[in-house]
Give the backbone structure.
Amino acid sequence: MDNMFQRSLEDLIKGFRLQLLGESSFISRALEEIRREIKATDLSTKSTALHKLSYLAAIHGVDMSWAAFHAVEVVSSSRFHHKRIGYQAITQSFHDQTSVLLLITNQLRKDLNSVNEYEVSLGLECLSRIGTHDLARDLSPEVFTLLGSSKSFVRKKATGVVLRVFDKYPDAVKVCFKRLVENLETSDPQILSAVVGVFCELASKDPSSCLPLAPEFFKILIESRNNWVLIKVLKIFAKLASVEPRLGKKVAEPICEHMKRTVAKSLVFECVRTVVSSLSDHEAAVKLAVAKIGEFLVEDDPNLKYLGLHALSIAAPKHLWAVLENKEAVVKALSDEDPNVKLEALHLLMAMDSYELCAKSDPLFCNEIIISVLSVCSRNAYEIIVDFNWYVSLLGEMTRIPNCQRGEEIEHQLIDIGMRVGDARPQLVRVSWALLIDPAMLGNLFLHPILSAASWVSGEYVEFAKNPYELVEALVQPRTDLLPPYIRAIYIHSVFKVLVFCLGSYFSAQESSSGSSSTVAFTYESILNLVNVIEIGVWPLSGAYDVEVQERAKNVLGFIGMAKQDIAKKVNLQDNEAEACRVTAFMEDVFSEELGPISANAQEKVFVPDGLELEENLGDLEEICGKFLKPVESDSVPCADKISFSVSNLRIRDQQEASSSSTSLPPKASSSLLAEHRKRHGMYYLTSEKNDPDSNGTPNDYPPANDLASEILLDPLDPKRKAKHRKSRPVVVKLDEGDESRIITSQAKTKQESVTDDESLSRAIQSALLVNKKGKEREAKGIQI
């Protein structure tokens, strides 16, 4: 009776269309109605209410987790219509933490054993969407049975579910893998397509586990005429060829035959990509692939033209001649109407010019190319750059080009992009970490400014770091003693920022752990380990000769001492009055203010204060400060007055010291002592000349002072050219927020778990293949006997 007056889903949608205003209030009334109807005992009424709730959750984002048990009730109905609505709600709302998830195990088993193939299909689709470790373990026998079903519709669905089952429960490989391999020999194109798709995904995770099946895949490559199946098989061989290079010689000829005879552009492109990425040693196949790329580039369809450019970008690292042959088409693509085609052509040209051309050019021309690329890309606040992640990666790759001496320009752009483009900061942190751990960077004096920028970026945007512990290890590594003191000071300050961020995350997580179930990013052991690593790495710097390095190191050590004391006293740190907690919160507020770019003309815009005379003649400065500017006349002058401001004063003082020493020591002794002193401390002397009165005829048998410094500071290009590339730029409008999600520790943990699952799945597949191979050998021996 209740069902007679119940509004259906169609009525709900019509009501929405009539609501010009007040849509939220209409949704609220509809939810109240659904909550009342879903409690009914009649399954028809309950299923209709659940259907409407699923629609609201899918279209308007309404939470439907509260109806999980009602979905289980609807699934248990014997009517297919109700069962379909219940499974749809389950796949839409259930997850690993759903409390009633285990209640559907028996219902799934019942539906998987049903004689109705459509009910079996509903159960398989639900398992593929919400399958957990327990569900995959309990339902593996049913999936194994369905893999041998006589109904093509069911067997195809069961094959697709196998991938989810293997991923959640790797031991299921022992049960289902043999029958999955048997399905490779089926004549049904739908089942074969599903099986090849499963093996394509398995090969992408671990190619070596699928290597024993190469003969079966080769047979499919030769005999199949289904383009979709062939594309998947080509993807598999592209992965297998990286593990077993001898496969390339075997599959090169069939792939070339497919490229010659087929008219399907999708299959041709997949053949081209397989050849240029995995079969690059086979010259005939590569030439044919490059010819097909040329056909793509002259097509009017922008999609095909984009695919041709993309294939060229894959071939460029190993086959630069392929790019040079199609250079005119690539340049012409820069004026294409499609923005994706223009962007791909730009990436291809810049990669070609900046990598291969730079590597094969002399240092002068190499740096001219680099500075040209940097100038063009940064013009008008990077107006031609659309993908800043790509450009940041390009800057990182430029540092690895031989003879690169443009460290200052790259340093400026790394910092400038970090301050201007918020969405590029995660990629900046990743690239900066890669630069910090590169040992070649520490040994190249021209690239030290880039390390300065990388260390600053790592500390300023540490919240985007995947693993702050790795950043700390890169910043306190012992080889940083090769860097100048001013860069080491930046390293220490970045370490301080990382420490403040980690302690702040730890303290805030500890304070909120009792009232919420949020994941704690740092445990007591991990934060203590991080603090100890920083303390061990920074401690030697507290005795550095450079005062700035020494001061920053002692500040960090003092902060660590205070933090370790409070952490040792209270592990949970729920006392908000802890000194380290308060100081950390204060420093977080200090570092939280975002730094932005500053115009080079900012100083000109500052108003001159009243009473400050900037145009007045300073001719009487000598009368006021004359006594401080007089040259030194004797050794009796106090130390504070011995500071001289010109090279001539330094020479006068050297002459006076030499004359005074010559009066008290014999000429030979004085000259030998002076020579010995200059040998030991030559870098503090000016270079000696033939007519230099300081030499006193002493033979110049030691290297000229500061020769190394002059070589380091020597710019192979005109130094005046730098100013042309440092014009003031307008502030770049940042990209829309949300394009790049922050990487947190929980995501890193999920990734590690997935890697572990992949390894266990690979081991299971290999063991299954080994058992299968031994079984075939035993059968062969039995036949022979």
Q: What stands out?
A: The chain has a mean pLDDT of 77.
